[in-house]
């Protein structure tokens, strides 16, 4: 089925100047960018996004990292988009990511792991609406 998923290019990958390289991978996989914005997240916005991880020991570092520089946020649309994007990203820990995945190629640690992608269709809907209003999404 055609799905939408939320993708974030994290501060480490923006700083490495590989936004275009990562976009090219989305496009080669037939994922369409139907919305995009670059933002420097506030602490409140980052904490709200990761609210489900609030009690995890890595929460503070995660919020610190995600607010350390601008991120590029996009909505990807396509057949099986949620799983397809997760396959493109590779495992959360870049040491465990398959060769050729975004994290294997561009990430340096489990915190600075280059990209975020929604993990299910339900969380994708929530994450997309956390960052984009419906008039900012351009189906095509
Ligand atoms: P992300 O998909 O953005 O969702 C939560 C983030 O927390 C995750 O990517 C990692 O970058 C970060 N993180 C740090 N430590 C861990 C951990 N032990 N398990 C899962 N995620 C972690």
UniProtKB/TrEMBL annotation:
Subunit composition and interactions: Homotetramer.
Keyword Oxidoreductase: no
Known function: Major role in the synthesis of nucleoside triphosphates other than ATP. The ATP gamma phosphate is transferred to the NDP beta phosphate via a ping-pong mechanism, using a phosphorylated active-site intermediate.
Catalyzed reaction equations: a 2'-deoxyribonucleoside 5'-diphosphate + ATP = a 2'-deoxyribonucleoside 5'-triphosphate + ADP; a ribonucleoside 5'-diphosphate + ATP = a ribonucleoside 5'-triphosphate + ADP
Localization per record: Cytoplasm
GO biological process, one term: UTP biosynthetic process
Gene3D superfamilies: Nucleoside diphosphate kinase-like domain (3.30.70.141)
Alphabetized InterPro entries for the sequence: NDK-like_dom, NDK-like_dom_sf, Nucleoside_diP_kinase, Nucleoside_diP_kinase_AS
Gene this protein is translated from: ndk
EC number, UniProt record: 2.7.4.6
Keywords: ATP-binding, Cytoplasm, Kinase, Magnesium, Metal-binding, Nucleotide metabolism, Nucleotide-binding, Phosphoprotein, Transferase
GO MF term (any one): nucleoside diphosphate kinase activity
HAMAP family: NDP_kinase
Annotated catalytic residues: 116 (pros-phosphohistidine intermediate)
Family: Belongs to the NDK family.
Residues covered by the Nucleoside diphosphate kinase-like domain: 2-139
Residue positions binding ATP: 10, 58, 86, 92, 103, 113
Protein name listed in UniProt: Nucleoside diphosphate kinase
GO cellular component entries: cytoplasm
CDD domains the UniProt entry points to: NDPk_I
Cofactor: Mg(2+)
């Amino acid at each position: 089925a055609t799905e939408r998923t939320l993708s974030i290019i994290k501060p480490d990958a923006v700083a490495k100047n590989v936004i275009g390289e990562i976009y090219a991978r989305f496009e080669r996989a037939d994922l369409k960018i139907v919305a995009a914005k670059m933002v420097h997240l506030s602490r409140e916005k980052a904490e709200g996004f990761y609210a489900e991880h609030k009690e995890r020991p890595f929460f503070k570092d995660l919020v610190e990292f995600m607010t350390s520089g601008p991120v590029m946020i996009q909505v990807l649309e396509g057949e099986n988009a949620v799983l397809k994007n997760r396959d493109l990203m590779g495992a959360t820990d870049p040491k465990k990511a398959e060769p050729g995945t975004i994290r294997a190629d561009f990430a340096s640690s489990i915190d600075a792991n280059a990209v975020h992608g929604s993990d299910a269709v339900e969380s994708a809907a929530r994450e997309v609406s956390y960052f984009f209003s419906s008039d900012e999404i351009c189906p095509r």
